[in-house]
Amino acid sequence: MRLILSHGNGLAVDLYYPFWSRLRKDFDLIIYDLRNHGWNTVGNLNDHSVPTLVNDHDRIIEEINNQFGQKLQVGVYHSLASLTPLLSPSKGGEYSALVLFDPPICKPGRSYFDFEEAAVRMSRSAGRRTFRFKTKNSFTDLYRIFPTFKWAVPGVVELLADTTLRESADGEGFELRCPREYEAQIIAYASVYGVFIDFSEIRCPTKVVGADPTVPSSYLPSLNLSDISSIDYDFLPDATHMLQVEQPEECVAVMREFIETTLG
């Protein structure tokens, strides 16, 4: 069985090593960085949008099937990457199943306004974040006090530095691989796309694993989706948006149980 994995906004798929390294023995893994993230070069800001990422997703899945052939495959996506199969015209039809970790989904009404308010706040914050660092240590010293990674397993902040920073072109220190204005632009429009998701249209079994909705969010608020009958929904107690690097064993266990129950 094949697992296809990607990551959240401003991050890199290698950051999720504590999670996906536990899957290497039992699955074929294909992991990829989103456009303008991770190992990819930085392109035009005008092309950095959710529709472009959805189109990238469709082309990547087509090429995976062309290069490696058809087989059972499960999309395992976090946050921003979760939107790509859900918004694709195929609606997940290329997959045997989907496992989505804390997708940025919202609903009309009060939850939408809360989500939109958080998105505006996060976009402004991302646009102002420090983007150059003299050393990786100066980066890790800063991010150890950030609430986003407060509950991460040991070594994740160092891994964050290695996977989201590159040497500056002028050789003077390090800079973000995904520039801050790119990250901010995606966040600014997150609620616009998150509200359009209709799980009844998804063409494969889907599992959503959310952050604990009772835990104060350090990112966009996690939405309890237990009332949607077309998906299998769970949340992990005490987990935040970065649940795969906070509780990697629990995330793997929940995912495995769903795959085994659904696909045998």
Which SSEs are present, and which pair or pack?
Blueprint: E1 2-6, H1 17-20, E2 28-31, H2 50-68, E3 73-78, H3 80-87, E4 97-101, H4 110-128, E5 132-133, H5 136-143, H6 156-164, E6 165-167, E7 174-176, H7 180-188, H8 190-194, E8 206-210, E9 232-235, H9 243-246, H10 248-263
Parallel strand pairs: 1-2, 1-3, 3-4, 4-8, 8-9
Antiparallel strand pairs: 5-7, 6-7
Main sheet summary: 6 strands, parallel
Approximate shape: globular
Q: In DSSP terms, counting alpha (H) and pi (I) runs of 4 or more, how many helices?
A: 10
- What is the typical, i.e. mean, pLDDT? 89
Number of beta strands:
9
Task: List the strand order in the largest sheet.
Answer: 2-1-3-4-8-9
- The level 1 CATH classification is Alpha Beta
CATH superfamily: Alpha/Beta hydrolase fold, catalytic domain
What does this entry look like structurally?
By secondary structure, the chain is of the alpha/beta class. Helices cover 38% and strands 14% of the residues. The protein has ten helices and nine strands. The strands form two sheets. A six-stranded parallel sheet has the order 2-1-3-4-8-9, with helices on both faces. A three-stranded antiparallel sheet has the order 5-7-6. Helix 2 (50-68) crosses helix 3 (80-87), helix 4 packs antiparallel against helix 7 (180-188) and helix 5 (136-143) crosses helix 6. It starts with a strand and ends with a helix. The relative contact order is 0.17. The model has no long low-confidence stretch (mean pLDDT 89).
